[in-house]
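User
Take a look at the entry that follows and flag anything odd:
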Amino acid sequence: MKKLTVILFVVLFLAVAVLYFFQFKGNNKANKINVSGTINEMPGQGIVYVNIDSVIFNFKMFTDRKNDLMSKQKNAEAELNSKSALYQNGVKDYQDKVNKGLVTRATAADMEQGLLQQQQELVNLRDKLQSNLVEEEQVMNRQILDYITKFIEDNKTQYNYQFILGKSFGGPVLYSNSSLEITQQLLTALNKKYQTEKK
């Protein structure tokens, strides 16, 4: 058992030594794209990162899609408010007629049943509109991330990185050297491509 521990320790030591040698030998430079789109040399072992929140929130595609979504939300709210106002008018009419004794109990029961059905339809409409908006927002976010990912994949020869990490608040990347950040470069290239396609 003691010999096995010594052998494992020696193998582990040699593996660490080999990794150390490969890590620090030769030219330790990776490529970085600047705003003009040319490639600059910088240290980093082929690993860079972007602040994904900044990329998304400053990406023109996100702004356009978010504005479309806000417009749909306003239309949904207007539809719901309109139907809610009709329901409120129906409730007032029902209460007024019942209080003044202008309808029979059978008619009042029918009116009440109609109002309950109208109220349930309003709740169903509200839930459906909310669900649709939530789903559209999720799809929009996935489409934007897909666009960014495809852009990086399509331009991988230009970027020439081994990894591009996405950093965000509360995400898995806890620390990053700011010299390895390419957020602005990626954002500029994305917006340029999107504006060209939009025309």
Observations:
- Residues 105-154 form the longest helix (50 residues).
